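Human:
Care to share another protein and its fold?

Assistant:
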Amino acid sequence: MAVRKRHILAIGGLLPADGNRPLLQYLLGLAGKPGPAIGMISAATGDALSTIQRFDELFDSLDCRVSHLGFFDRTCDLNEYVASQDVILVGGGNTKSMLGVWREWELPRLLRKAWRRGTVLAGWSAGAICWFEQGLTDSFADRLRPLDCLGFLPGSCCPHYDGEIDRRPAFQELIRKKLLKPGIAIEDGSAVEFQDRRISRVIARTGQVGAWSVRPARAARHGDVIEQPLKAPRIEL
């Protein structure tokens, strides 16, 4: 039996209304089967009803079977639930609080096990940075900060790179100061696909860069950083 590649799709952020449909269709296609089971996790917003409703609206007319994994009411058997999903999709919100809940329930171990056997892991914003070693988070009220994450993927990640004005300078400054590892920055409506921990392709909106590589300059005089479009095959949606 062929071993499925391990897929993670890191999405920078959602777009308004139906602008997300092509990207979500691409995500479902990674499952490699019709009508995949997609488990949605909204712990980053405390399982807010508005978040769950948004999930439902996003996938309402797409060919998939949607369910929600909740942590703030009665929580199901996590091992059984995760094992039954073809795709695990994580929404945005407070990444630090989300990871705290996950770790208390030992969910990261189950997600890693599922990923290794071929379950597609994905998410936007908090649901994108959580898979990396580090991420740039707005979990704190005062400023954007570095956050240690799960480490399924190497380096750091910044979502909303073109959608929130303070993201780009903060990400570069923290990398310059070596408070964040070199990493990737992803624009809203775009995504970076990983196969077996390596970047496979960039999925971007037409006319957009989609994703950037940000790293310290080798011969930096004043702690300069280099920002350049991510070198990977591209798919424009």
Notes: The mean pLDDT is 94. The domain at 7-236 is CATH 3.40.50.880 (Rossmann fold). The CA atoms of residues 132 and 153 lie 4 Å apart. The helical segments are 21-29, 49-58, 78-83, 95-104, 107-116, 126-129, 167-176.
